[in-house]
Amino acid sequence: MKRRWLLYILAGIVLAGCSNTGTGELVGTRKNEKPFYQPDPYGMVFVPQGSYTMGAGDQDITNGHLIQPKTVSVSAFFMDQTEITNDEYRQFVYWVRDSIARQILGDVRPDDYLIEENSKTGETYDPPHLNWKTKINWNSEDQDVRDALQELYLPENERYFRHKQIDARKLMYSYYWVDLQGTARKDMSKKGDPKMASFANRPLGTRNRSVFVHNATINVYPDTLCWITDYTYSFNDPMTEKYFSHPAYDHYPVVGVNWQQARAFCVWRTEFLNSHLRAKKGGVELSEFRLPTEAEWEWAARGGNQLSPYPWGGPYTRNDKGCFLANFKPLRGNYIADGGLRTVVVGHYPPNDFDLYDMAGNVAEWTNSAYDPSSYNISWDMNPNYTYNAKPDDPPVMKRKVIRGGSWKDVAYYLRVTTRAYEYQDTAKSYIGFRCVQPYLGRNKGDNPSKESHVYH
Predict the structure, then answer these.
(1) What per-residue confidence (pLDDT) applies to 213?
(2) For the chain, which domains are there?
């Protein structure tokens, strides 16, 4: 009898040892959860981590002080395979237009265009959420709806040929960002100014961390007149009328977008994706879309070729058949020699070894980095990025942002992966576009990024 009880006790001890609870072992909080998997974002390619010599690979006496060689290391990330196109940016513009329209219609038809509480939890939304399931009838016969939507249209005395035309000046987008650099600064003054102290070092009760949250409201519509303002004595009127709106240019790179608008697009794209992931059961938010840093852009443009001056891996702007490899200004102004007069459709020329198109020519590209001739010397050698959030009243020199890659109007020198240029963050040009990156968070062991994977699981 005693032996039988001993067997029961031993069996209980063994079963208890097999349990996940009460063992005292460190097993973490996600032991039984599904492992995280980050798929390739749609339209993006994987750029692996790496180390390279950032800056000029050979002598450049004239601009040597701007591109001093420096060995840097860069984390892995995803990058748009092409520049953001007119059609892709138009999705952003239409989203802003429709969200404003829903806010306006919420005053006359709140049951149709607003969601005031969560139907499952009973949580009250303040302010109410927009109901995106209800379609907007722009030609509604409802007089109240028609009158409300008139707020979005141009006044009759400002309409140009068209009977009704959306007033682009009203397409305003508000977004927020956190000044992480500000939160990381330690207050070395005696007064203990909370604006200059990190959250961990700030005394309790002085101020909350909202002082580091900033917001901006900007117009999102591209400057379609940039073709004329950039080249006053050149007939570019057809580009002004058609380039952004006509379907013939859907897959051309968007231009006339300043740095602030490009950053707003990245913020919107992040929230647009994560809102869909949150709606899915068990969906996990992914990292933000943003503009690439200068170091990330150059690493991606090189395509793994350490010493080549151009993204395609060679020292010349032509291939072995004599064809130009990018859209730029060759032969002292013979613009059409490379196949394009101004911009061309994205992906027209062969990609580099990272499978990225148009890293040289077509349009120059905004980066996240601020421009300073000595930034290579003052930045760190791992994921370097000199940045500055310029305010509207800051002097113009503080508003300079790095652009890379050269454009359809530039000579071959600006196509080099090392060439640095800049433009002011509140300025839009007919030769500057952008593309986004998304940081690589990681995958399960054994999973490798694949350019064929374009679906979020």
Answers:
(1) 84
(2) 50-85+223-257+291-448 (3.90.1580.10)
